[in-house]
Amino acid sequence: MYPSGFYRDENGELNVQGIKIETLTAKYGTPLFIYDTGLIKERYEVFQNTVKNVKGNIHYAVKANDSVNIIKFFGKLGAGADIVSIGEFHKCLAAGIAPNKIIFSGVGKDKNEIEIALRNKILQFNIESEEELYDIYDIASKLKITANICLRINPDIAPDTHKKISTGEKETKFGIDNEDVVSIYKKLHELDYINPVGLGVHIGSQIFDFNFFMKAYLNLKSIADNLKKNGYKVPTLDLGGGIGIHYDSNKKPDFIAYKKIISDIFLKSEYQLSFEPGRILIAEAGILITKVIRNKKNKDKKFIVIDAAMNNLIRPTLYDAYHKIEPVKSKIGRSNTVDIVGPICETGDFIALDRELVEVKSDDLLTIRTAGAYASVMKSNYNARVDAVEILIYNGKSYKLKQIDTIQDTILKEKIIDFN
Ligand SMILES: Cc1ncc(COP(=O)(O)O)c(C=O)c1O
Fold first, then answer.
1. Is 150 assigned a catalytic role?
2. Looking only at Cα atoms, what is the longest distance across the chain?
3. Which atom belonging to ligand 1 lies closest to the Cα atom of 200?
4. Is 3 a residue whose pLDDT tops 90?
5. If I label 70, which of 59, 114, 179, 181 is the partner at 20 to 30 A Cα–Cα?
């Protein structure tokens, strides 16, 4: 048995499930995303245990990593899905997730998306405005298909996270203001083809201070309890996702603290809960391997130019995010303070700034850790760069997740106009 995740062997070389990373880069090239199903399973089971003493279902937040095979693997582990577009819905279907295990979240579902989701009888829509309710009502009445509706509350809570992934404050586009929830929830009961199923909340991502979750969940439960007292049915509560992970150390999220919050608030209640974890299930199970193109020195600065770039991993420049970076083969020697940058013509194209790194040379391999979530899924082809290859390690074997278009493939897809 091998340790789960990415580990060093006795020679200091990085391995996964008994395979040397260098063997994988020799076969697939770089930049290369590698996902370990062993670690995905381990993380899923930890989360499952964390919430097992309350009545609840896990809906993997597909936005974290929407590879069909990864969704399929979560499905095999028993998860449903949380989606934010009909594109993600089709990926879930391809992954074998039943529509009745799919929650459709998101602030901008368009009419076409609503119709497809309704016709396929998805589990529920988590709606974010009264306007959205009436769009769904129009389509549901026309199709004569009942829509299960959950209202996403905006509790006006600002968690300790990056502004761009904070979603529970009043000034963000997400959710329905606390004050309006009750009146809209009551309206759900008056409409044909609309079935009220509960309330939900998701205050953001990468949250470490769980007091913010506690506040949000208590607020959610208190509104739900009041509605129930007044005779309205509120069978389910959706607690969203958002648990933070440590990108800079091997520390695990405090699952015990999360379990205590969930148990304290919900153990004695009747609510059926939904959880929508994304990052904690998949982030650590992915790495991005990159090759050093060259060292570059300016008068005041040292750069390591690598073959991965912001089009493969935008988190550092978008969220000021930290990713651990180390040589694939352990090295001892002098280290320098360097910027680790990609080849894209943008100053914002960096993976790390002012980072201490052991001296490396052209063609050395580096691993960028914790690249399983919100990484490849946010890729682009900027600067006419082709996608990185992505592979999954399962039962000691590597599988390519998809065919990658070459630059010639992409040019062939462009419609060339004859300007004569
Ligand atoms: C509605 C909703 N649920 C769940 C998630 C997953 O969050 P995380 O990956 O932090 O667990 C998100 C992420 O933004 C979200 O918007």
1. no
2. 75
3. 1
4. no
5. 114
Q: What is the mean pLDDT of residues 385-414?
A: 97
Contacts of 98 (CB under 8 A, 6+ apart): 80
pLDDT tens-digit map of 52-90: 999 999 999 999 999 999 999 999 999 999 999 999 999
CA of 205 to the centre of ligand 1 (A): 6
Euclidean distance between CA atoms 324 and 333, whole angstroms: 18
DSSP for 7-28, written as a single string: EE-TTSBEEETTEEHHHHHHHH
pLDDT the model gives residue 132: 97
pLDDT band at 320 (very low <50, low <70, confident <90, very high): very high
**Cα 402 to averaged position of ligand 1 atoms, centre (Å):** 25
pLDDT at 39 over 90: yes
Q: Among 5, 31, 11, 27, which residue's Cα sits nearest to residue 344?
A: 31
What Å distances lie between residue 156 and 178, 180, 205, 233, CA to CA?
A: 8, 13, 15, 25
DSSP symbols for 29-42: -SSEEEEEHHHHHH
Which pLDDT score is estimated for 364?
98
CA distance 132 to 136: 6
**pTM here?**
0.97
- Hey, what amino acid is at 192? D
Confidence of residue 212 (pLDDT cuts 50, 70, 90): very high
The binding-site residues of ligand 1, defined as CB within 6 angstroms of any ligand atom, are 61, 63-64, 82, 105, 202, 205, 240-243, 276-279
Tokens 């095979």 sit at which residue? 69
The C-alpha atoms of residue 52 and residue 42 are separated, in whole angstroms, by 15
Ligand 1 centroid to 241 CA: how many Å?
5
Q: Which atom of ligand 1 is nearest to the CA of 374?
A: 9
By most ligand atoms within 8 Å of CB, the mutation choice from 44, 59, 82 for ligand 1 is 82
Question: At 72, which amino acid appears?
Answer: K
Mean pLDDT, rounded, for 379-393: 98
The number of residues making up the chain comes to 420
Question: Which ligand 1 atom is nearest residue 373's CA?
Answer: 9
CA quadruple 386, 325, 28, 280: dihedral sign:
negative
- Domains in the chain with CATH codes: 6-30+285-413 (2.40.37.10), 37-281 (3.20.20.10)
Active-site residue, selected from the candidate residues 26, 332, 345, 417: 345
Task: Find the 61 Cα to ligand 1 centroid distance in Å.
Answer: 6
pLDDT of 373 higher than 90: yes
